[in-house]
């Protein structure tokens, strides 16, 4: 049975989109004549459509007059990937993380210069109960916050310094230079620690999650009683976190 065609389809827009799909299927730049034959319309129509999309950056033209996909599509693809519901992409993997480690799993993002916990998963038999706490201003003292801050633009760091670095426990880093060194270390080693810095007796370990553009979109962590994190378990959890974060990143379109 033939597919029913919507009465709302605009023929010229449909042809322009089909041109983009054709260019996407071919590894080389294509000429107007070649595209005209594939699309089944006159060369003048193809030329007009291509010139319109060229003006908006959706296609680009080589020196010999042939066409390929434009850089604007890369930008739109990154935006699309970023707007995927990261909680949906991460939820099942977070459940696996919580049950494998028997620890609480957290997913966090940045909202300007504030930390937002967008999801939390507790294991089936939790050993730890995290007291209620406003994490929004704890970007400098939590592992998820450090991961996000380490990869954030400099102006975010400056905004946090401007509002003041709050001390939550005796272990909280409040010296700007010490915090800056800590963030450099986080970038280099690929994970962050928050040992008794926000709530005494609780340690969190976090790793970055990447989007389709290869940028850090979120942070994934586990929170544990500090007394339960010996050296062997600490190393094992870091590897599990990295594995789970990689799976989530791939769901967001990252090829890393």
TrEMBL record:
<dbReference type="InterPro" id="IPR036388">
    <property type="entry name" value="WH-like_DNA-bd_sf"/>
</dbReference>
<dbReference type="InterPro" id="IPR029016">
    <property type="entry name" value="GAF-like_dom_sf"/>
</dbReference>
<dbReference type="Pfam" id="PF01614">
    <property type="entry name" value="IclR_C"/>
</dbReference>
<feature type="domain" description="HTH iclR-type">
    <location>
        <begin position="10"/>
        <end position="71"/>
    </location>
</feature>
<comment type="function">
    <text>May be an activator protein for the gylABX operon.</text>
</comment>
<dbReference type="GO" id="GO:0003677">
    <property type="term" value="F:DNA binding"/>
</dbReference>
<dbReference type="InterPro" id="IPR050707">
    <property type="entry name" value="HTH_MetabolicPath_Reg"/>
</dbReference>
<dbReference type="InterPro" id="IPR014757">
    <property type="entry name" value="Tscrpt_reg_IclR_C"/>
</dbReference>
<dbReference type="GO" id="GO:0045892">
    <property type="term" value="P:negative regulation of DNA-templated transcription"/>
</dbReference>
<dbReference type="GO" id="GO:0003700">
    <property type="term" value="F:DNA-binding transcription factor activity"/>
</dbReference>
<keyword id="KW-0238">DNA-binding</keyword>
<dbReference type="InterPro" id="IPR036390">
    <property type="entry name" value="WH_DNA-bd_sf"/>
</dbReference>
<feature type="domain" description="IclR-ED">
    <location>
        <begin position="72"/>
        <end position="254"/>
    </location>
</feature>
<protein>
    <recommendedName>
        <fullName>Glycerol operon regulatory protein</fullName>
    </recommendedName>
</protein>
<keyword id="KW-0804">Transcription</keyword>
<keyword id="KW-0805">Transcription regulation</keyword>
<dbReference type="Pfam" id="PF09339">
    <property type="entry name" value="HTH_IclR"/>
</dbReference>
<dbReference type="InterPro" id="IPR005471">
    <property type="entry name" value="Tscrpt_reg_IclR_N"/>
</dbReference>
